[in-house]
Write a structure and sequence with these properties.
Elements lengths: L8 E4 L3 E3 L5 E5 L5 H7 L4 E4 L2 H9 L11 E2 H11 L6 H15 L2 E4 L3
Antiparallel strand pairs: 1-5, 1-6, 2-3, 3-4
Length: 113
């Protein structure tokens, strides 16, 4: 299953903070449309990620030593395999979670031309 080309890079594009247990809490900005503000409010929404989601989102922060933007799929995968050995369906779950993050605009998927 390859939802993303192997040369894809992933970069965070959402504000976040880390809770005391080390898990990521995404800070979702309030909606901009008047009807959405009316129905969902004008407060920043906090979305708590679990351990796997936190590892994926944190890994999308990139590797600061390289001058490149974002983290490559193989770099992301190496981190997850090391942190979650023997986790069932890890690749599928990771790819689907990355797709969800990208669809919401919380990460950017950079595909070289």
């Amino acid at each position: 299953m390859n939802l993303f080309p192997p040369e894809s890079r992933f970069r965070q594009s959402c504000s976040f903070e880390t809770d005391p247990e080390g898990d990521v809490v995404l800070l979702i900005p309030p909606p901009t449309g008047w009807f959405a503000r009316l129905t969902r409010g004008t407060k920043v929404h906090r979305l708590q990620l679990d351990r796997l989601g936190s590892a994926v989102f944190t890994a999308c922060g990139g590797v600061p030593q390289t001058g490149e933007e974002g983290v490559r799929w193989d770099e992301l995968w190496a981190v997850l395999e090391r942190e979650f050995p023997g986790e069932p369906n890890l690749e599928r779950r990771t790819e689907l979670f990355l797709r969800h993050l990208a669809s919401k605009g919380w990460i950017r998927v950079l595909i070289p031309q």
